[in-house]
Amino acid sequence: MFVVYAQGRAAVRRVRVGNTTPAAAEIVEGLNEGENLIVEGIQRIRAGTSVQAWPATAASLPFAGAAREVVRVFSSLFVDRPRLAIVIALVITIAELLALGRIPIAQLPDIVPPQVTVSAIYPGASAAVVEETVAQAIETAVNGV
């Protein structure tokens, strides 16, 4: 276990645990007066790290009191009844699909493809000559636009 010395430094030490309950554990051996045991966040602690210790009361823990009980009830409800969790997920998915069809499209911008208009005058030329000399050249140049 990690023990916090009076100077606020963490160190690894063997402790012997006596009687335990879901809410508390009795440390029989390995803990001196003025030292605290780290019980949460052990993954982030290394020997020699400076830490700040405080008593683990119900008010200082995350999800204290009634909120912790609500989280426990919901999590156990879905763990014990996986079919219920699947049904709720399907109902939410169906509701999303129904809502997707009702989203107003009027708020989206109109996307119009670009249009180019070109006029050319070639006096005295036949339609075939204009098509070969003018129209194909302009069509090739404008095709990338």
Give the gist of this structure.
The protein is an alpha+beta fold. It contains three helices and five strands, in the order E-E-E-E-E-H-H-H. A hairpin with a 5-residue loop joins strand 1 and strand 2 (about 10).
Structure description:
The chain is α+β, with helices and mostly antiparallel strands and 145 residues long. Among the domains are: 43 residues, no CATH class; 35 residues. The chain is built from three helices and five strands. It has a three-stranded antiparallel β-sheet with strand order 2-1-5, with no helix packed on it. The protein has a two-stranded antiparallel sheet with strand order 3-4. Helix 1 crosses helix 2. The protein is elongated, with a radius of gyration of 37 Å.
Show the helix and strand layout:
Blueprint: E1 2-4, E2 10-12, E3 16-20, E4 25-29, E5 36-37, H1 66-80, H2 82-100, H3 127-142
Antiparallel strand pairs: 1-2, 1-5, 3-4
Helix pairs in contact: 1-2
Distance between the termini: 71 Å
Number of helices: 3
Percentage beta strand: 5-15%
Number of beta strands: 5
Give me the Rg, rounded: 37 Å
Element-by-element helix/strand order: EEEEEHHH
The whole-number mean of residue pLDDT values reads: 76
Structural class: alpha+beta
Poorly predicted runs are none
Gross morphology is elongated
Helix content: 25-40%
Sheet with the most strands: spatial strand order: 2-1-5
Q: Main sheet?
A: 3 strands, antiparallel
Features:
elongated, 5 strands, 145 residues, two-stranded antiparallel ribbon, 3 helices, alpha+beta
